[in-house]
Batch of 4 targets.
Target 1
Amino acid sequence: MIIKLLIGLILPFLLGFTILSWIDRNKELDLPEQTGLSFLLGISATTLLLFWAFLLPLSHRSFLVGTFIVVFSFLQLLLVDKGRRIRDFVKKCYTVKWPVGQKNIVVLLLLIGLLFKLSYVFVEAGSKPEYSWDASNFWTTSAKAFHYFDRDYPAQALQGVLNLKSHDDYPRQMALSQAWLYDYLGEANDQMGKLLFPVTLVAFLFFFYAQVKKERAGPIALFFCYFLLSAPLFVYLATVGYADFTIAVYFSVGILCFYRWIREKKLPYFWLFSIFIALTLWIKIEGKLWLLLGLILLIVYLYRDYGRSIKEAALKVGQYLSAYLIISFPWQIVIWAYRLEARGEFTSNLGHFSEMQSFIYNSLFVQGSWGLFWFAATAALLVGWHKLINRQNIYLLLTIIMFYGALLFIYLFTGDGWDSMVVSFNRVLLSLYPVMVFTLAVVLPDLNELLWWRRKK
Amino acid sequence: MKRTQLTLLVVLILSIILAGLALLPEKRLIIDKFSVVNENQILLPNSNIDANLFDVCVLELTQAVAYEPGAMLFTSQYFPQFSYNLRFDFDSGPANRLNKIYIYAPSHRAWVGIIKDILIIPSTNGPMPELQRVLFIRSNPWTKIRALSSNFTRYYDPKLGSVFALASPLFFNNSYNVLMGPWIWGIIAILLAVAIGCAIYKPDPIIFKISLLGFIILFLLLWLILDLRNNTYYLKGMRRDASQYWGKSLSDKRGIVNLSSDFISFMRFCDEAIPSDGKIINYVSEKIPGTADGALHHTQLYFNLRPRLNTTKEYYVVYGTEQSKLEIPVQGLKMFKKFHDLAYILTK
């Protein structure tokens, strides 16, 4: 069982690694970035391939997609690239500098703490079958349907899944990624399938560490990784298979790649920004707003700081939208073609505006299972405002403000509004959380800077 | 003296101090007259307990309960309704041979003055255990630590379910942790205000650094305490997973997470009985005693059954309701397969 699960996890990693070798031709990504992104990108690409396969009259689709991944990766990595990328990756793995080598007790404690929290996530996710409301009702039921229908009724598989009438218009990455694992496990084992989320968390931690490491020293980057895992809600949602965790990871990767692109002007980050933001729309329906948020960020940057011709700026917008067209547009066509019930009707809940503000305050600071985080975030933004409004960090601030605006928009003008806010606010807010932790890492001063007596010596 | 010897000596002294704390005298009040109300609640009417004198409540059960969250509610001269202090007070953890559950009463802000009626919910999920007696104790530090360690604060989202984790502390009105008196938040607020003021007006960099450093140190201290508590919950969670789930079959585990192994057995029965192209109509009751409200009806039926194409005959899957009490037009429906009186399949 474990070997089958590993095959189901390694194949997407291989696909992601191969796609990254295209995007990052000049080998500009670090080892932790490459490792984390390979899995995150790979699992999404695998679900897209699987989805496209479901549009065709095939059967045993996961195994066809798996074969395609192996052949495609073999051609790209061994024949076209002549194994250079793999050799480079292995060499980087051998020469990696582990922070433990610094013999710093704090670093060692942080590493032990991180491993402990990750152990909890793995044990909690892998010990019991799926039970949480949304995950059972929507993603995992749908995943089981993909798995069984592909095997028993391949010709009617997609129609069969859509007939379930459970969140019809919802994007399908969550369901297809689970179905992919079930196919490789040979049974609809939701307990094993749930391990996808801890693995996603580990992949994200690699990426997050690399991003903070570019701003701060290694031990501080490690501290912020631990800090990221200290919010109970983030850890909890990584154990129960909620889509809110996955979209939080993808949105954050997208925004951090945007930040890296404007800091370092390296093209792979622009593509990764476009792809990951577009992927949010393949995970949850609110990805529509995050796609818009990304577009506004991009346009503001192109107008304010890009410093190139209008033609080049327009090309960037076109490239950003092309990622959306390739990734999420096919699903929109299916929604239209199958006449699925699309939600998101506009309603007005302006009468609840003040109640909403009170609820938001209560969720952030009192009952939202966030620990001390939002208190720390508010304090850091106020104290470090001068760092926050510099040329590049202002885009992090802009993201935070737009995210807040988008949240208000969701609850003020769509769907059940106020009623759904009570249930989902904390979970939707989760998408901003890693970006916020990163912002703290960027704006907070070094403790050494604050030790005023040291400078006197 | 060598370092090892010194460490051993310190450990020995600490152990003696801890053992000594356990031996300090305690004042006890024993209540063994109470009444059972509403299936899972125990009422101690008009107890007249002085909250200033007693701080720990111990429930002594005739049998052990395992992994049951529970609560203690009360009315007092200032808080005349039970709902003023609704919260989870404890998580029993694994069953222990002493069959005792400790509750640290001052965790309730309302634990002041003379306490009147006390309502105890010894288990939230499973059947109610039999209560032998209730003790109210003016505790020594050892008992206090014991009661605090079983203190259970958790986030609850009506649809998301219980989150095995901490809620955020209140800013200035923290009630659940004695380590976080309002004064800490007062100092933090002042330091933060000074740091923000300095960040904006920049009068003196040293004032800025001192205030910010003070803020960060205090913040880190509080964060560490919270994180330590959080990690304790994670440790408990892993122990719970290991003892409750490891080594069991997937079906057994489904029974545990849904709080109804009978329902899971019925699902297997349905899977075998209903043809793969049959259309399933959901008549699982929304109120099944001992399970989360609506969970079996809304999430678990289709999730636990093998998906079907829903193209041919209709099968009414009924669970939790006797056939004579069904609120659906049963004319023309006949029994297709019966699992037991409350679990069966009807068809036309």
Note: The radius of gyration of chain A is 22 Å.
Target 2
Amino acid sequence: MKKPGILILILFVFGVASVPAQTKYFSRNANISFYSSAPLEKIEAHNTSGNSVLVAETGQLEFAVLMKAFGFEKALMEEHFNENYVESSKFPKSTFKGKIENISSVDFTKDGIYPVTVSGKFTLHGVTKDINTSGTIEIKNGEVKAKSEFTILIADYEIEIPKLVADKVAREVKITINVTYQELNKS
Amino acid sequence: MKKYLKYVAAVIIAAGSFGYFGYYYINKPKESIARKEPDVIISPQKLLEEFTADEQAANAKYLDKIIEVSGKVTSKNKSESNKITILLDTGDPMSSVTCELSPKEASKSSAVDEGSIIEVKGICTGMLSDIVLVDCIILSDLTD
């Protein structure tokens, strides 16, 4: 009766060992920008210190960004953004947790630009909503880059715009994402 | 008649200067922190320690403050929008202090390389996996 036990043990050990290790890609300087164009003023802000993780096998994708790290051209815009709109002292981070739906179509070993669809949960100003968007994964000489663009409605995230300036601030904001990943050391 | 003109002139001047300063105020560019004194001088290790121990307390203490740190550069990156980011060693390979340089510091940063020891001040914006400082100014290069 001993033998089947050992056999199972051996199978188990080999079974575990042969499960492919996950390949994780990481970035700590993801570029995240947003643009809003209203009749009076074009507003744009950039952030180059976003974090992102991408798991090659499962397509799991995560982003995190600090609201206060968005840089504006004008001091007053930045102040209004942080204090009145996103309340960044109360809600310092914005995050995205989701996955690339068609990750199997991305060949990480072959150069190319692969169109992808992404879905997940986006949190901003303490409010979480489902979002779906598309983007691209570019593989070039082993380097992995990701790009995407999507639009959100300010009202969806309970961001109040004072009536006085309601006509001057756009109701929609376009967010662009541009990341170059590094493979995380497997050690 | 003369009195009347005086009033008109006064109103025009008042309105003009109000408009001028109003316009200036609304369009004021972001101020550099180059001439401002740091609120806190701390080591990257200690800063990380405080953020990992109690992020909320550290946020309350450090957000929007000018922080001066000195440490070893573990990497230097340039974004596609030409922003330069320097990472400082905290002793933990998974977390650094990320210093996003003010655009005017670009020329100074060319002398900075991996392994350099530098002194930097910047505005603390919080912690992701790294603690992020923005609008950073390089104060000195302490590399021997």
Note: The longest strand of chain A covers residues 24-37.
Target 3
Amino acid sequence: MLRNLCGIGLAATLALTAAEFSWNLPAEFPRPVVPNDNAMSPVKVELGRYLFYDKRMSVNGKESCGSCHRQDLAFTDGRARAEGTTGQTHPRNSMSLVNIAFAPALTWANASLISLEEQALVPMLGETPVELGLKGRERDFLAAAKSTTVYQRLFPQAFPGEADPYTLANVTKSIAAFERSIVSVRSPYDRYRFGGDTSAISESAKRGEILFESGERGGCFQCHGGWNFSGGIRFATREGAERETEPGGGFFNTGVSRYAAPNRGLYEQTRKEEDLGRFKAPSLRNVAVTAPYMHDGSMATLEEVIDHYNKGGRFDHANKSRMVHPRSLTADDRRDLIEFLKSLTDQELLHDPRWSDPWVRGGNAGKYLLP
Amino acid sequence: MQIRRRASAVIVGLFCGFLVLLHGQDAASALQIVGAVKEPLTLTPGDLAKMPRASVRTTNNGMETVFEGVWLHEILKKAGVPQGTALRGKALAGYVIAEAQDGYQVVFSLGELDPGFIDNEILLADTANGKPLFGAQGQFRLVVAKDKAGARSLRMLTKLEVVQLRK
């Protein structure tokens, strides 16, 4: 029985190796930028999926990348602030990985961290706080991977021609490729706005869209703009050139807190006064399932978030964006805005087997042995 | 003949109503051209369809869109706003306020709307990729393709008001 299952796994992997990677994006959407030294391939994405969910990467075997980035929560964790595998609390809220391939900057407060391959090292090796706690155990993990049946197939096929493909660099490349593959444009709103399905969203959500896109009323689009509802995107043109829509932008002080260390926004990196309190405007796709909100997870519901912006922020600050000011949204407006935001949830994404945990026996890839 | 014309009007009205329902639009949406014009206008998509059509291809957040509509200077010409050789002297102290459904306003000088001065190609669009505009785009919008920022490519356009500073 076991041999048969492994045989099925081998056949599936060979098929992945031969196939070209497809983004599965509608033609009108742009494609993400892919680093020259880490081309996308189905088998590399599949390897990245196994690594993403491999709990042996954590010092106590309790957590993986997928612990703070749960698929059913659009790759967030439901906590106000993330918690590492040893119980240390991260200063900020877990960010969604959906459409991270289009993000000009990856984290809440570091405009210079733009490489998924580099970023993957932070939760693996970081010590302030400890997230996975892999530092000093890298060789042990790579040795464990080398002796794991599924990896014995995937690593050599993902990195053909390499004498020893079991390297930390290849681990981060694979995880980055997996994360890059998590793209979502299949929400009811997408069907309404781009697919010609006028009944895909409610009348309330349609009114909410108008409020969202009105600078005079909701003004939301001013920070969460474009089809990704984010502070800009980075993408590849049809000719293969790299473009960024808001170079240096996409970070705003919205009067959420007093901005005490270590949550002073971009200032933590740049030490420029004008960057105090500036945090990334993340994509609002799937925002209805990514509570709690803001960089510090200090708002439990979308109602709280909208009330925050309707009041013009919790706190005044010299750097507060001029777009954050008291507005006159009514209770009906708030309901419509929330209906609109709910229409951005891609339900397929939350259960799509391409991004699910392959180590769970009986899951979509339960054919493989548990590590 | 009159009955046939009325019947046609009813059919056209029903069809327009169908289109309005189809795209979830406010039935009252029509574009007003008012102010210092010889002939104030109220334009519907049907009226725009009979005017000289033009298109502009834009890229926004990596998505290409072909907007179709009527050059704004054609609309102003229809309303009797001075253009070409007539746009001189005091007339050049004129401008257009474009206003959106939510009260948002932007301004263009008459000079920057006149092809005799500059090829600015500002489009009053009513379709995107061959489909009528709807929802947060409004039924009409401006596409100012040569602006570096998008803030004057006003959506949900409801009114164009011409103002002459010097009489």
Note: Confidence is low (pLDDT under 50) at residues 1-8, 364-371 of chain A.
Target 4
Amino acid sequence: MPPFLGGGSMIKTVALQETTYADVPARFEAGTPAIGEAIALGEAVDFLSEIGMDQIAEHEQQLIGYALDRLADVEGLQIYGPLSTDQRGGAISFTLDGIHPHDLAALLDREGVAVRAGHHCCQPLHALLDVPATTRASFYLYNVPEEIDRLVVGLDKARKLFS
Amino acid sequence: MYREVILEHYKHPHNAGTLDTPDISHEETNPLCGDRVRIDLQVADGVITDVRFKGRGCAISQASASLLTDELRGKTLDQVRALGKDDLLDLIGIPLDKNPVRIKCALLPLKTLKAGVYEYLGAQPDETE
């Protein structure tokens, strides 16, 4: 198979009339390898292993559980996906009656709560659910329950502004 | 961004609906966020006599359509052709020039209007428009 890209470290010999490419995989890996990225990946793996993936999953589950509890009390809020923690990852997509998901994201941003709005790479599902988009809060290792409280405050403020 | 005037126009849009026999009817969408605006115009001797719009989307795009359509009655098509991005941003009064995502919401009604007018006139928009 011929190489698709030229660059450093992907040749054996170059002459005026003829070039011999390196063996696979080197011939497909032209240029400087991702050295910094590989080192950073190693650090990231060490960091996560030290904490423990079980611990991280447990933390996410606790946050999701708390979020599901708190969000259930928000008037006009629709949560998409299972309402139990065991079938969920660390993200919750939702809509709030009468407010476009992008407006909601902008209003939450104003409260210091960073969320994503849009199709989340699954436009057909949004078409099936018949919503223009959803707003999505994601929780991870570095999030704390107080941030979910802020999210709820932000949602209430947004609802009042648009009512 | 969500000033009183924007919220008011979003909740109670002016010129909402469609015209029965529009001379110009054009719809544009913003594929990124699904915003949709259709503008109908009645034209007599090159002057806009009536206007309606129909759409769905965020507060910015819908309020922008409401505010823009309020300006159109009595305007000539040439005046519409001369309308630019800055005119619209002045009209809605939100500093969006540093917000590349939401500025598209605000400009969608202007894009719809101009595309409809250009289509009607059989002209092509300039590169800058």
Note: The longest helix of chain A spans residues 53-71.
